[in-house]
Structures are given as C-alpha cells and as structure tokens.
Write a structure and sequence with these properties.
CATH topology of the largest domain: Rossmann fold
CATH architecture of the largest domain: 3-Layer(aba) Sandwich
Number of strands: 9
Helix content: 40-55%
Order of helices and strands: EHEEHEHHEHEEHEHEHHHHHH
CATH superfamily of the largest domain: NAD(P)-binding Rossmann-like Domain
Structural class: alpha/beta
Strand content: 5-15%
CATH class of the largest domain: Alpha Beta
Length: about 290
C-alpha cells in the first residue's frame, strides 16, 4: 500500500475544520492555515502554516475551503498563496461554493498560472455536523484517472461517498442544484410549520403526519427539530444560504426560478433583520415575527 499523501487544508471554518480533524483521525499528515490562527488550537497533530504558501509547500494535495470566490482567489494566487508554494505535480482541490462562472474562471486561471498542478473541483453536500461525522458527500469533477486515484483516499477520510461528475466545473454546477433544492425546501418547512400552528397544530404534529410516508425526509425532520427545539445554532448559516441562493440564480441566467427568487428576497430581509449568523431554519423566526 502506498503512503498516505500529506494534505494541506486552507480555511478552518466549520467545514474546513471538520476536514482537517477527520484527516488527522485517519492518520494523514496534515498542514493547515487559517486567517485566525487560533482556529487550529484543537487540531492536535496538525502543522500550522503562517501562510497558505507555507502550508502548501509541505503538501502533495491542497484543499481550499473559504467563504467566497474573492477570498478563494486571494488564498490561491496571492504572493503568499497556495500556488506560490505547491510543488510541481501537486493537486489543488477547491471545495468552497463560489459559483459557476467563478469556478470556470478559476479553472482557467490555475491552468495558465501552473500547468504542472492538477485541479479538482469538489464542493460538498452536507453541513457542519455531517462534516464532523465524515458523512458528507463530495461532488467532485476534473482531473485524470491517476489524479482521481490520488485524491480518493483523502475524500474517503472526510466523506461517506464521492460522486465523480466529469470535467472540472461540473461539481460546482451540481452543488448549486443541490443547494437550490435544500434552500427552497427549508422555506417550505418554515412556511408550512407556520400554517400548522395557525390552524391549531404543533411542529411535532406536522412531523407525525409525515412520518412513515414518502414525504418524511430526514432533512425535514432535522429542521423541524431545530424549530420545535428553538435551537438555531448554525449548521448552515442563513447568510451563506442566501449567498448560495444568489449564486444559483446567477447560474440559472434566463431560466425562470420564481420560487428561488422569492426565497432569496425573503432571506435577504431575514439577514437584514439580524438572523444571518443563525441556521437557515431561523427563517421560521423571521416569518413568525411578521405574523
């Protein structure tokens, strides 16, 4: 069996931190970098770089997981960025949700800057707790067969499965399809819970009517638990859900998406009302406050 590759994780938000923790748990030599260095304090055994460049220089595979396209570009292309440190033959795995056009531009720019580096587009389906439990799904695209073989053990350490979707950029596209679905579903859960309460039922009564039938999705149960338990600690923060809704609408172009467009408007108002750092289930609180 070949030795496990050294992996660098750039960005230690909820998802990146979980990736690093699971890599360490599975015996990978792990380099990390985060703008706020203290995010790595509990990652015992990780080697903390002073810059993305320093972390990448000691790695064979680099995973970036930061908030948006602008920040992703900075950590990859900056003077102290990943590409300034990553060795020839290394693999860059971009895992953040940054949009379709933005991903396509990134793919082109990486190829122009470093044609000796392989690029994998690999956003994930899942939120904070599934990431901590290595139960997310990787939506991967790009790379030749040899590159995919190299990165698969890394994905196996952080996820329950990997869907290989073809050429680079298709992962970013499927990610927005998946997130558009979960965003509109969350809005539906919040609104129908309010309807249930209006006509004399609780959120638990609503679930009891679904349980055992084809509509009893585990995601619905999880979000109803947050609503009925008044627990809005973020698994996926509302502000990031709004970002993804806007990215999905951008990717849709002229394709009619009236429901998602309305949801984005509602969530924008909810973020403006101070709910942005709460879980997306907090849209229920916003609706309840409106009456």
């Amino acid at each position: 069996m070949s030795a496990k590759p050294t992996v660098a994780v750039i960005g230690l938000g909820a998802m990146g931190h979980a990736f690093a923790a699971n890599l360490l748990k599975n015996g990978f030599t792990t380099q990390v970098w985060n703008r706020t260095r203290s995010r790595a304090d509990d990652l015992h055994g990780a080697q903390v770089g002073d810059s993305p460049k320093q972390a990448a220089a000691k790695a064979e595979i680099v995973m970036t997981m930061v908030t948006d396209a602008e920040t992703t570009e900075k950590v990859i292309f900056g003077d102290d960025g990943v590409l300034a440190g990553l060795k020839s033959g290394g693999v860059l795995v971009q895992m953040g949700t940054i949009g379709v056009a933005q991903t396509d531009a990134l793919i082109k720019r990486v190829a122009e800057a470093r044609d000796d580096v392989a690029f994998i587009d690999a956003p994930v389906s899942g939120t904070k707790t599934p990431a901590e439990q290595a139960k997310i799904l990787v939506l991967a695209s790009g790379g030749d067969e040899a590159t995919r073989t190299r990165v698969q053990p890394v994905f196996d350490a952080i996820a329950k499965g990997t869907k290989w979707l073809g050429e680079a950029g298709r992962g970013a596209r499927m990610k927005l399809v998946v997130n558009a679905w979960l965003i509109t579903l969350m809005q539906a859960v919040a609104e129908t819970t309010r309807l249930a309460e209006t006509v004399g039922f609780s959120g638990d009564d609503f679930w009891d009517a679904l349980e055992g039938g084809p509509l009893a999705a585990p995601y619905v149960r999880a979000k109803l638990d947050k609503i009925t338990g008044d627990d809005f600690e973020a698994q996926m923060a509302l502000q990031w859900g709004l970002k993804d809704a806007r990215l999905a609408l951008q990717a849709a172009g002229d394709t009619a998406m009236p429901a998602l467009r309305t949801v984005a408007e509602q969530w924008s108002d909810a973020v403006d009302a101070g709910l942005g750092e709460k879980d997306i289930a907090a849209v229920y609180q916003y609706l309840k406050a409106k009456g």
